[in-house]
Design a protein that fits this description.
Elements (H helix, E strand, L loop, with lengths): L5 E5 L3 E7 L2 E9 L3 H14 L5 E8 L5 E5 L9 H10 L5 E8 L6 H18 L3 E5 L1 E9 L3 H10 L3 E7 L2 E9 L3 H9 L4 E5 L2
Antiparallel strand pairs: 1-7, 2-3, 3-6, 4-5, 4-6, 8-10, 8-11, 9-10
């Protein structure tokens, strides 16, 4: 399977609330790049909502389809994590996580009620945040003599590369994300320059 050149994700965090028979479900959707990003967000929400009975979640990272997780966090199996992940997947989103915090309302909702509550709250959180298309980027580091600075920057700008980090001394180092669909052109242009070394880092 060929990896796509673009992916769809969300740009900003959002939240939405759904109530059913006294139980309150608050869904938080946010963009993530790594599983560590997700863990940090989960810790924050657990601190902010210590009285919640469940913190159920799902996330999907990357375009290869293999990096995802879902958790029912003590709810009956398949009633929380799967419906949340289902909402992420129905919109074909990646690099997105949704955590749904549940406050118990005293009435059992039953399996269909729970599936519906987690599904609807996740869907509502995704409805209130803009969905954006981003280019799949490959990570490279470029080392060059500072006299080449303008030439290197011009190529990166021209091809919409993302500068992630830079160190400027006598020899400069730039870490960049190069759009996958422009990779050959960018590498060709960079390798054409004198005293410039390009290495794949991710």
């Amino acid at each position: 399977m060929k990896e796509p050149d673009f992916y769809t994700t969300i740009e900003k965090p959002s939240s939405a609330e759904f109530k059913d028979r006294g139980s309150k479900f608050i869904a938080f959707a946010f963009p993530i790049e790594t599983a560590d990003d997700f863990k940090k967000e989960l810790q924050v929400l657990k601190k902010e909502h210590p009285k919640a009975v469940h913190h159920c979640f799902a996330y999907r990272i990357g375009t290869d389809g293999n990096n995802f997780r879902s958790s029912d966090d003590g709810e009956p199996s398949g009633t929380a994590g799967k419906p949340i992940l289902g909402q992420i997947d129905s919109k074909e989103l990646v690099n997105v996580a949704i955590i749904v915090v549940r406050y118990w309302g005293g009435t059992l909702l039953g399996v269909p009620g729970l599936i519906n509550a987690y599904k609807v709250s996740a869907a509502m959180a995704l409805q209130v945040t803009p969905i954006v298309q981003k280019q799949v980027e490959l990570l490279y580091s470029i080392e060059f003599d500072y006299t080449q600075m303008n030439d290197v920057m011009m190529i990166l700008k021209q091809f919409n590369c993302n500068v992630l980090a830079q160190e400027m001394q006598l020899f400069c180092l730039i870490k960049t994300g190069i759009p996958k669909n422009r990779l050959d052109e960018v590498l060709y242009r960079l390798n054409d320059l004198q005293n410039v070394s390009v290495k794949k880092t991710g």
